[in-house]
Amino acid sequence: MGVAGGPSIPQSGMQLNLDASNSKSSPGSGTTWSDVSGNGRDFTWSSEPTYNTRPVVGGYQQPDSIDSAMASGPASNSFGITSSTGASFVFYCTNDNLTAKSAFKWYTGDGSGTDARGYFAHLPWNNGIIYFDKATVTDGSLANNGATVTSSGGGRVNTSSNPGSHVNYFWVHVFTCSADGATMKIYRDGEEIASRTNAGSNPTLASTAATIGGDDTYASGWDAKMGAFLCYNRELSADEVKQITAALRGRDGA
């Protein structure tokens, strides 16, 4: 996936590629968002979503997209992501309104308590702050930076403030975690906007189905439009993040 004569999406370590602009991935009807990475990890919508063909919203030409609903995929531990591989998640999306919901969740199998987050994001929370969690459980509040560390020693990284322009404008959001688990980063359109270097170890993922657009705690209700979602079983480099951003933006003319 890329644009003729332009940058292409890195393939090394790619485990999932869901693309609203590719008719093989998103045919414009039905309840399946098909994986075009070659790994066959399709996701199923909880109900048929609304499919959007390059709408103009707020004066901005948006790419092909799917209105957010919750979609469930294969087991979280079936993406080749282990406690020693690292992981990266790419979400090309926009918000219609800011809500207190979740964008994606890969479930952990080594935590205790409720809402065990292997890899998880609020994109953003209703205060506009973007959160990325790994190997954490939460009590459902944002007290104490919102996450309680499990026995796996996980953690959270978030933007220090609301980066703004969440509504109507599509951004390429990339969330990365290093192989040793210590370093977590959030990028937006190729620029690093948050990082942490003492985030502890990576989770052991569970057999629970990975979810996009919601999860077991927040269900659906994230008020967003989704253009593409990719998952890697390694940490993407800063240069690769810029390459992915250029490829997605280039093919959509953004």
As for the CATH topology, it is: Jelly Rolls
**Under the CATH scheme, which class?**
Mainly Beta
The helicity comes to under 10%
Sketch the topology as an H/E string, one letter per element.
EEEEEEEEEEEEEEEEEEEH
Distance between the termini: 16 Å
Q: Please state the structural category.
A: mainly beta
Average of the residue pLDDT scores? 88
Structure, explained:
- With 254 residues, this protein is mainly beta.
- The protein has a single domain (20-252), classed as Jelly Rolls.
- The chain contains one helix and 19 strands.
- The chain has one helix spanning 238-252, and strands at 14-19, 32-33, 43-45, 51-52, 56-57, 60-61, 65-67, 71-75, 87-95, 104-107, 117-122, 131-137, 148-149, 155-158, 171-177, 184-188, 191-196, 209-212, 224-232.
- The strands form three sheets. Strands 2, 3, 8, 10, 11, 12, 13, 14 and 18 form a nine-stranded antiparallel β-sheet that branches.
- The longest helix has 15 residues, at 238-252.
- It is globular, with a radius of gyration of 16 Å.
Quick structural gist:
By secondary structure, the chain is mainly beta. The protein has one helix at 238-252, and strands spanning 14-19, 32-33, 43-45, 51-52, 56-57, 60-61, 65-67, 71-75, 87-95, 104-107, 117-122, 131-137, 148-149, 155-158, 171-177, 184-188, 191-196, 209-212, 224-232. The strands form three sheets. Strands 2, 3, 8, 10, 11, 12, 13, 14 and 18 form a nine-stranded antiparallel beta sheet that branches. Strands 1, 4, 7, 9, 15, 16, 17 and 19 form an eight-stranded antiparallel beta sheet that branches. Strands 5-6 form a two-stranded antiparallel sheet.
